[in-house]
TrEMBL record:
Matching InterPro entries: Nitroreductase, Nitroreductase-like
The name this protein goes by in its record: Nitroreductase A
Keywords, comma-separated and alphabetical: Flavoprotein, FMN, Oxidoreductase
Origin species: Mycobacteroides franklinii
Co-factor requirement: FMN
Length: 224
């Protein structure tokens, strides 16, 4: 596939046919994804390929609490897990919230589940002293995560970037034997999608790009 076609059609695949992902295809996906950039080219990522049913169930157990809060906040009309506005959902409400099967099932039905970790000793978190949640460290791992999803799309497979399990990160570290020098960045169920989308809906460039300043004029171009 052409690069732009892959970029415009890589969607969050959550329904899979159940057919296997051959090792040689996964090899190609990972071998190409590894060329993602990282801070100082320190390549701080580590990927764990999970296929065992019992390990998948452990990941589901870790995913469920975070997902409960996510959907409880949606019902409350909030932006889930955002670090600016505290949630009004009570612990009782969150505990009583049902997690949709669409969140859990991919971890069971995907051909493989990739758990992507990052070595915290190798990232440059230049925002660590600011009075806000840190985001900069992700620059050294999420390009790798996205390269995996792009490569999977190019091979006719797909997946979705999930992070709900990170809310229970200590459980995931113990489950997978991950040292505490590492953080869990993403859990990626990968498989053959039941249907392959070719057209995605996204905001137009002029809706989120401005000239010179945040409150500057919208970036409008007639050259597309």
């Amino acid at each position: 596939m052409e690069l732009y076609d892959v970029m415009r059609s890589t969607f969050a695949a959550r329904e899979f046919t159940g057919e296997p992902l051959p090792d040689n295809v996964l090899d190609r996906i990972l071998d190409n994804a590894r060329f993602a950039p990282s801070g100082g080219n320190r390549q701080a990522g580590h990927i764990i390929v999970v296929t065992a049913p019992e390990t998948r169930e452990g990941l589901i157990e870790a995913t469920t609490p975070g997902a409960r809060r996510y959907f409880a906040q949606i019902v409350a009309g909030e932006s889930p897990w955002n670090p600016v506005s505290p949630t009004t959902a009570t612990a009782e409400t969150i505990a009583a919230t049902t997690v949709p099967e669409s969140v859990i099932t991919p971890l069971r039905t995907a051909s493989v589940v990739l758990v992507v970790c990052v070595d915290l000793r190798l990232i440059a978190a230049t925002d660590q002293d600011l009075d806000r949640v840190g985001v900069i460290g992700g620059a050294s791992i999420y390009p790798l995560v996205w390269n995996i999803l792009l490569a999977a799309r190019a091979e006719g497979y797909g997946g979705t970037l999930t992070t709900m399990a990170v809310a229970q990160e200590p459980k995931v570290l113990e489950l997978l034997g991950i040292p505490d020098t590492h953080a869990v960045a993403a859990v990626l169920p990968i498989g053959k999608p039941v249907k392959q989308l070719t057209k995605l809906r996204r905001n137009g460039v002029e809706e989120f790009v401005t000239r010179e300043r945040f409150d500057g004029d919208p970036y409008l171009s007639g050259n597309l």
